[in-house]
Amino acid sequence: MRHGNHILGAFALASSLVGCGVAAEDTAATAAASDDVTVRADGYFTLTRDTRRCASPACGGYFVDPVNASSARCADGTTAARCYVGAVDLSALPLAGSERSVLASARGEIVIRGRIGVASGNAYGQLVATEAWRSVAGAAPTSSVSRVSTTGTTCTFVPCEALNLLRANGSATALPVVGVDLSRLASLDEATRDEVLGAATRDGGSLVAGPRKTIPGNPSTTLVPYVHATGAFVRMAQPARTGLCGDALRDGFAWATERLLYTSETDAPFTWFTVDGARTVPSDAALLAHLGIAAGTPVAHTTLDAFFTGPLTAGDPGLAEQHRVARFRQLKRALEGNLTGVTVLRVGTVQIRVFIVGVTRCGTVAGLETLAVET
């Protein structure tokens, strides 16, 4: 059902107008770099390692700059455009060793969400991190940084303002947008682009820099808002996405399919299933029996590539469609990286139950189910 397609509907008009330079910056929604804001509690900060040579913690800590703000409250209670902390507490983040190395030598490309506070035995305080983000395009911008995440809205109209733009260290009021335009970040590889675009359609969201712009919609009296990204970030301390099994595999596919719908003549979610006791993909008859489907129900087989031909084919060149395709590319990578011997079964007619099934790293059988309606 290709109408608004859940949170990722068609947006061809916006894409074409962006390329023509018709877009206008929404100045009311995009404050200047010199926002007269002081971050006094939880906030977003860029991180730069102090390379001065003196005894720790007086040197060797981190300089912390507030994002979208003129100052922050430092550990000693004063306010300044830049604070110094003797340490960064990363205990809440399950960082990989390589990520810790990046943080240890940060040069402004890292954004930490957290709180500056006092620390026992450290007169210079610390930044207690709850999130860490790495810029994918050099030094992290310190202005016009916002979080983009899904509204959770199922749209039945075009364009679909199904994403929220929430300014970092700014107002708690979110502004609607239809998507994120990454055309100014042409050097990004496909997987990184998919990470940024895909995260924006999830509850956790994506961190991007750039103004909120609008272009004429259809009818031309309407304005279509989107984010014209000048910078983007990927979240650090993410769990592995491939080579999983057990609960980690189930959770990995929950991430891959969060708010993602398979579109036919209806929009259907994906659900996780396991085939208890099986070590290889069962015969059609055995699988139907396990799933409680009547014997003799028609079964057709297809490949993973064939299944994804439709979802990975953009229905239009618009921004929202780019988000949708990015999500399906991520799902395909997750299936290829976690299941072997994958086959796709289409069970029934008209209302067709679709099962993507394979063998996990643990030697069990599992997969995803969705629904296709074809009259």
Q: What best-fitting shape do the alpha-carbon axes yield?
A: globular
Average pLDDT works out at: 88
Count of individual beta strands: 25
CATH topology of the largest domain: Nuia
Taking pLDDT < 50 over at least 5 consecutive residues as the criterion, the unreliable ranges are: 1-21
Structural class based on helices, strands and sheet pairing: alpha+beta
Cα end-to-end separation: 12 Å
CATH architecture of the largest domain: 3-Layer(aba) Sandwich
- Biggest sheet, in brief? 11 strands, mixed
- Percent helix, as a range, is 10-25%
In total, how many domains does the architecture comprise?
A: 3
CATH class membership of the largest domain: Alpha Beta
* Alpha carbon gyration radius: 24 Å
CATH homologous superfamily identity of the largest domain:
Nuclease A inhibitor-like
In what range is the share of β-strand residues?
25-35%
By DSSP (H or I, 4+ residues per run), the number of helices equals 7
